[in-house]
Structure formats: structure tokens, C-alpha cells
From TrEMBL:
PANTHER family documented for this protein: CYSTATHIONINE BETA-LYASE-RELATED (PTHR43500:SF1)
Keywords: Lyase, Pyridoxal phosphate
Name listed for the protein in its UniProt record: Cystathionine beta-lyase
Cofactors: pyridoxal 5'-phosphate
Family: Belongs to the trans-sulfuration enzymes family.
NCBIfam families to which the protein is assigned, alphabetical: cysta_beta_ly_B
Length: 398
């Protein structure tokens, strides 16, 4: 894969420029800014000679189209010079499962952060276990202590920075340096920060995964996943995708690229509003704790400051000990915070969660009911007023 075209070879462009220009090839699109949605399976070869030699930029729909190429090039430029390739898959979970299947084999051992996305655990405990791959979960705050968990057959470590419900912030560069000394690859579910705010490949991560369903899509209208890999891991990922026959639908590829072009302005707004909401919630008597890595009160704040250039719109709070009916009164009163899974779209969301029944390396006992918020692009004043009504209903139901 080559670099982008429409930035005219200019090096050291700001990421805000890269995200708008990378992967554009207006000349081959007869002047149009965006690539067409190429729906295609068969690619015709002009001569028998070309057919025998598999000559031509595109071979078969599953292996890539002008639409997938544009998105891959844009993502590669955004991930930075360490990125050797980007795989496009039909969901965030498919990105995780495809990446794990691509780098592991029977008899291998895998280390996974105890704060990882729950379906990631289900995949490890279900399919990977059936294929003879053992998973050990580790405390995301283990730091250098992870060394003791390595076995002679530990092949990979999966981190999520921060955990997308509980927001523990692992020390990714430290874990990566220990993993590499042991010959293991490091996978990072980088969905929360995106490559805009966390260049994980530059922090020692070998495989950086995005649930592009979230901020890249940005409009709650697609399921999509991306796998970005460095030189060490890309041959495995590329082979895995080829062998598994994984590919994404052309409309979703187009919408992911369309979403990516505005991700920088959307994320900046999500960041600003979420921080304002988080700071406001810290002052509320109903709230025991706010779990947001960009707040100085967060235990992972120093790592966030060192490794990240921004924060997105997702954070959690712990309410003071209260009965379920009080929490439900809050949830049923708010109007601007929809109740639903996923996040990363333009709209605000709230969801109650409890990690206590599936954690295995750590204990989840935060001291009260937990709520996760996604702060969307609505006015912060409206969101505060809405939540204020919710908190009043909470208090009334205590
Ligand atoms: C949503 C999410 C996923 C899964 O993405 P889907 O596109 O829903 O399959 C993976 N990891 C994290 C952190 C997520 O939030």
C-alpha cells in the first residue's frame, strides 16, 4: 500500500490535515473528491497473460477495491509511519477475533487485560479455548508485575487503554517492552482514544484495533472494525484476513471513510463536553467517583497525560450507595441520554454496568452503582439540565 496522494507528498502535516487529505486520489476519480462505492466481486483481466500473472491493481472484490484502498490509505497515514497495513473487517469484535486468530495457534498462551471488552473475553474463553489456546487475565494496573505471568508459550498480550467501562489505565509502553523481551506481540483495543489521541503503534503496540462502529463511523449507522499493524505483525494479519475470507461491505467502507474525514472536529467536541460534564459530576453530592482519565483525580491520569494527546466522550461514574429503583428513576427521567449499547455516535447515551460477575484477576467493588456516559454533540447546558432532572428523580426515589 502506498501513501496518500492528495497531500502532494507533503511530509509532517498535522493530523487534522492528514485526516482530510490522506487516501484521496481525485485524478483517478475524474475530479470527484470521494471514491465511488465500488460494488464488486469479479475483476476482469484484459489478456490471458495478465490473468496468468494475476496482473492488475485489483484481483478480486474480497481482496480490495478502490473504496477500501482509499480508507486503508487514510488510516495508514493517521496511524503514522510504523503502520505497515490496515485490515478492514465487518465489526469491532471481528477485528479482535480476526487479529487473535491470525497471531495465535494451538498450544499458545495469551494474556488479556481483566478490563477488556466483555465479548473479547467470551471469544477467548469460548473459541480460543476450544482451539487449545489458554488465556490468563491480568490486572490492568499490574505494570512490571506482568513479567511473572509470562510462560514459555506466551505469544500475545491484549490491552485496552483505558478499559471502556471501568477506565483503568494500563501502562502500555511498559507492558509492550516486557512482552517484546519475551517474544510476544501486543494488541491494543484503541477504540476509546482512536489513533488521533493515542498513536498506539508508536508506543510499542504491534496491532492496534478500532471498533470503527464508534468514532470513525461516528453516526451510529454502521458496524465496522479496523486492524492496523506494524512490520512485525502485518504479514500475519494480512494472511489471517485472506485465509478467513474476511471483508467488509462497500457501503460500510464508504461510510467509515466519510466519518473519518470529520472525526477530528467531532472528537474535539466530544472531549470538551465530556470533560465539562465529568467536572460538573465531580461536584455533585450523588456521585462518589468520576472515572475519567483526563481528570487529575483519576489514578491513571499521569499515564494518560504521558501517552495520550486527548480524551474522547466516554467516561463512567460511581453513584453513592443507592437502591436499584433510584438508579432506574434517573435512567427513566433523562430524555437526552438514550439508554443503549455502543457509543461514539453524535448522540448522548447512558448505561448502567456491573463488572463484578465476570472479572477474574481483579475485584470490581466500586462502592455504589456504576453508570457509563457517552457525551454527544448536544449543548452541554441542555445535557446538564437533563441530568439534573435525573439526579432529582434519583434523590426522590432514595
Ligand atoms: C464496541 C466495542 C467493541 C466491539 O465493536 P463492535 O463494532 O460493536 O463489534 C470492541 N471494543 C470496544 C472497546 C468497544 O467499545
Amino acid at each position: 500500500m502506498t501513501a496518500s496522494n492528495d497531500n502532494h507528498g507533503t511530509t509532517s502535516l498535522d493530523t487534522d490535515t492528514v485526516i482530510v487529505t490522506a487516501g484521496r486520489d481525485t485524478k483517478s476519480q475524474r475530479g470527484f473528491v470521494n471514491p465511488p462505492v465500488v460494488r464488486g466481486s469479479t475483476v476482469l483481466y484484459p489478456t490471458a497473460n495478465d490473468l496468468h500473472a494475476h496482473r492488475g491493481e485489483f484481483q478480486y472484490g474480497r481482496h480490495g477495491t478502490p473504496t477500501t484502498k482509499a480508507l486503508q490509505e487514510a488510516l495508514m497515514a493517521l496511524e503514522g509511519p510504523k503502520c505497515a497495513g490496515v485490515g478492514l473487517v465487518p465489526s469491532g469484535l471481528a477485528a479482535i477475533s480476526t487479529a487473535l486468530l491470525s497471531v495465535l495457534k494451538a498450544g499458545d498462551h495469551l494474556l488479556v487485560s481483566d478490563s477488556a471488552y466483555r465479548p473479547t473475553r467470551n471469544f477467548c474463553n469460548g473459541m480460543l479455548a476450544r482451539y487449545g489456546i489458554e488465556t490468563t487475565y491480568f490486572d490492568p494496573l499490574i505494570g512490571a508485575g506482568i513479567e511473572a505471568l509470562f510462560k514459555s508459550n506466551t505469544r500475545a498480550v491484549l490491552v485496552e487503554a483505558p478499559g471502556s467501562q471501568s477506565f483503568e489505565m494500563p501502562d502500555v509502553p511498559l507492558i509492550a517492552s516486557i512482552a517484546h523481551a519475551r517474544g510476544a506481540l501486543v494488541l491494543d483495543d484503541n477504540t476509546w482514544a482512536t489513533p488521533l489521541y493515542h498513536r498506539s503503534l508508536e508506543q510499542g503496540v504491534d496491532i492496534s484495533i478500532q471498533a470503527a462502529t464508534k468514532y470513525i463511523g461516528g453516526h451510529s449507522d454502521i458496524m465496522f472494525g479496523t486492524i492496523s499493524a506494524n512490520d512485525a505483525a502485518w504479514p500475519l494479519i494480512s494472511e489471517g484476513i485472506r485465509l478467513l475470507g474476511t471483508c467488509a461491505g462497500p457501503d460500510d467502507v464508504f461510510l467509515a471513510l466519510r466519518g473519518l474525514r470529520t472525526m477530528s472536529v467531532r472528537l474535539a467536541h466530544h472531549q470538551r463536553s465530556a470533560l465539562e460534564m465529568a467536572r460538573w459530576l465531580e461536584t455533585r453530592p450523588e456521585v462518589l467517583k468520576v472515572l475519567h482519565p483526563a481528570l487529575p483525580s483519576h489514578p491513571g491520569h499521569a499515564i494518560w497525560k504521558r501517552d495520550f494527546t486527548g480524551a474522547s466522550g466516554l467516561f463512567s461514574i460511581i453513584l453513592k450507595p443507592s437502591p436499584q429503583k433510584a438508579v432506574d428513576a434517573l435512567l427513566d427521567t433523562v430524555k437526552l441520554f438514550g439508554m443503549g449499547y455502543s457509543w461514539g455516535g453524535f448522540e448522548s447515551l447512558v448505561i448502567p454496568f456491573d463488572c463484578s460477575d465476570y472479572r477474574s484477576a481483579t475485584t470490581w467493588a466500586p462502592g455504589g452503582p456504576a453508570l457509563r456516559f457517552h457525551i454527544g454533540l448536544e449543548s452541554v447546558d441542555d445535557l446538564k439540565a437533563d441530568l439534573e432532572r435525573g439526579l432529582a428523580a434519583f434523590n426522590a426515589a432514595l
